[in-house]
Design a protein that fits this description.
The protein contains 4 helices and 7 strands. It is α+β, with helices and mostly antiparallel strands and 151 residues long. The two termini are 26 Å apart. The model has no long low-confidence stretch (mean pLDDT 91).
């Protein structure tokens, strides 16, 4: 398992992973915008067991996208292949972004579907605290649970 910054060459596998999980509908243009944004930190986890050093030949296991905005950062998206979940990949991706919070008092915010108990437990396990709920935030009327992590 190897973490590195996301590149444009990763987009086919990132989009495939997003379709596999069917949890958001970002398109290639949106991912490109994040990769190119100076304030974004886009990280991938890949399988480093292959013999080739080519990024294209390695299996992408997961990714995370953060906005690093000084003391207030945000986790926009994190995903791990279904077949690779519960192996620590999501934790490593999350840690990579949280490690970018360098000053005491730095915070990372996120929102998650209120009914997504698995994700909420994951974030709480990693020190995120629920601080609010946005009523009927999602297009289907579900609430968003708002979390923050403080360094």
């Amino acid at each position: 398992m190897k973490l590195r910054e996301m590149t444009e060459n990763d987009l086919p596998q990132v989009l495939e992973l997003q379709r596999e999980l069917a949890f958001q509908d970002w398109n290639e243009k949106q991912f490109l915008s994040e990769i190119r944004a100076s304030y974004a930190y886009c990280v991938v986890c890949e399988d480093d067991c292959g013999s080739s050093n080519s990024d294209a030949s390695r299996a992408l296991l997961g990714y995370a996208i953060f906005h690093l905005l000084g003391p207030d950062s945000e986790l926009l998206s994190i995903a791990t292949r279904a077949s690779e979940q519960r192996k620590g990949i999501g934790s490593e991706l999350l840690k990579a972004g949280l490690d970018k919070l360098t000053e005491s008092g730095d915070q990372c915010f996120l929102e998650v579907r209120d009914g997504n108990a698995k994700a909420r437990a994951f974030y709480e396990k990693h020190g995120f605290k629920l601080y609010s709920v946005r009523k009927k935030y999602y297009s289907d009327g579900e609430d968003a649970a708002l979390y923050k992590f403080s360094r």
